[in-house]
Amino acid sequence: KAGVTQTPRYLIKTRGQQVTLSCSPISGHRSVSWYQQTPGQGLQFLFEYFSETQRNKGNFPGRFSGRQFSNSRSEMNVSTLELGDSALYLCASSRAGTALEEKLFFGSGTQLSVL
Amino acid sequence: DQQVKQNSPSLSVQEGRISILNCDYTNSMFDYFLWYKKYPAEGPTFLISISSIKDKNEDGRFTVFLNKSAKHLSLHIVPSQPGDSAVYFCAATDSGNTGKLIFGQGTTLQVKP
């Protein structure tokens, strides 16, 4: 069974640009969550999607947005990039995200560098 | 406001000894806690979890202890192996926020041969 796939693996952008990151969950998983990892900050929750609907949202500005498609694949978009957006962006999937005991399976992430 | 805190950025232990990683939380609504391990250039992988109705959960060399009154949990690794060297993240969630985990900053564990 293939794991969570994130593309691209690395990305370099300049301030003011926008970027779109992609995530393909494990087959059969319908919940997709996004996290931002920066040094010293751990992983911070961005948002979670289930059946093409955003069910939960973290404390990030509106420049961060996402969507989920009918095949459960998800994209995350960051507009008007700032230097502080440089981070590892991780996607995680689970079956339905409705039970506490459901484990999140993470992809390897997209390393975004904003110059 | 950091709701989940791992106050030790790093820990170094000898192979065969016990590794103890600590985690504190502030939100009394949290009722499920997890530990994830992360190697460089890889995503975090689930290690072990514990529900708030328990105070201990064991899986092989890994044991997680929960002290609800102190809002503290710890991960014990016995015996530690060089392959355990990684970043360990503590995470918490509550039943109203499925799909959303609150992570600590992580502790880098180095197990020396």
Characteristics:
heterodimer, A: 115 residues, mainly beta, seven-stranded mixed beta sheet, four-stranded antiparallel beta sheet, 11 strands, B: 113 residues, six-stranded mixed beta sheet, five-stranded antiparallel beta sheet, globular
Please explain how this structure is put together.
The complex is a heterodimer of chains A (115) and B (113). With 115 residues, chain A is mainly beta. Chain A has no helices and eleven strands. Chain A has strands at 5-7, 10-13, 19-24, 31-38, 42-50, 53-57, 64-68, 74-78, 87-94, 105-106, 110-114. In chain A, the strands form two sheets. In chain A, strands 2, 4, 5, 6, 9, 10 and 11 form a seven-stranded mixed beta sheet that branches. In chain A, strands 1-3-8-7 form a four-stranded antiparallel beta sheet, with no helix packed on it. The termini of chain A are far apart. In chain B, strand 9 (86-93) and strand 10 (102-103) form a beta hairpin. Helix content of chain B is 0%, strand content 53%. In chain B, 38% of the residues are buried. In chain B, strands 2, 4, 5, 9, 10 and 11 form a six-stranded mixed beta sheet that branches. In chain B, strands 1-3-8-7-6 form a five-stranded antiparallel beta sheet, with no helix packed on it. Chain B starts with a strand and ends with a strand. Chain B is an all-beta fold and 113 residues long. The A-B interface holds A 4, 31, 33, 35, 40-45, 48, 50, 55-56, 58, 90, 92, 94, 97-109 and B 4, 6, 9, 31-32, 34, 36, 41-46, 49, 51, 89, 91, 93-95, 97-106.
